[in-house]
């Protein structure tokens, strides 16, 4: 392994550890030492890569986001647009332990963004990327004839808002909202616009 590869591997290990610790204790309680211990590196090495908690948090969010994007792009060229869109929507909800961790990070970002301009810019930038994922699936479906022509930007904004709303209820373990209910409601809301069956596709 080259020095550059070792450096990248160390950064990834640190960022993964940071995601875990921030999700567990929250940004306000996190200490760099806690992340270093979880990553199995010295505090000095951690500070070499990330000199402040704020920079570590921002890169941890971006790292977590990129991991989700990588999973969504697998075999994307060989499945119907409806399945791609359903996968994206499912990934935008806290449907498994890893995505619940991502959701905790998002909630930390939302709180910070209310008071910190840098966090606000990061949140808006990440939402832009989410918007691109959803509009990409919508445009693919429209172009292939799988979806009826629609305002893809407005539809994407609606889908993201629905995912945020239902996701919060799922994170709260609200007994009125289960995963199946959330997925069915989100899909059913846009199914008529897209000209597809109202049932959430098997993914």
From TrEMBL:
PROSITE patterns: HTH_TETR_2. One of its GO terms (molecular function) is DNA-binding transcription factor activity. The keyword Transmembrane does not apply. Gene3D superfamilies: Tetracycline Repressor, domain 2. Keywords: DNA-binding, Repressor, Transcription, Transcription regulation. Pfam families: TetR_C_6, TetR_N. InterPro entries: BetI_C (IPR039538), Homeodomain-like_sf (IPR009057), HTH-type_TetR-like_transc_reg (IPR050109), HTH_TetR (IPR001647), Tet_transcr_reg_TetR-rel_C_sf (IPR036271). Residues 8-68 form the HTH tetR-type domain. Residues 31-50 bind DNA. PANTHER family: HTH-TYPE TRANSCRIPTIONAL REGULATOR BETI (PTHR30055:SF234), HTH-TYPE TRANSCRIPTIONAL REGULATOR RUTR (PTHR30055). This is TetR family transcriptional regulator.
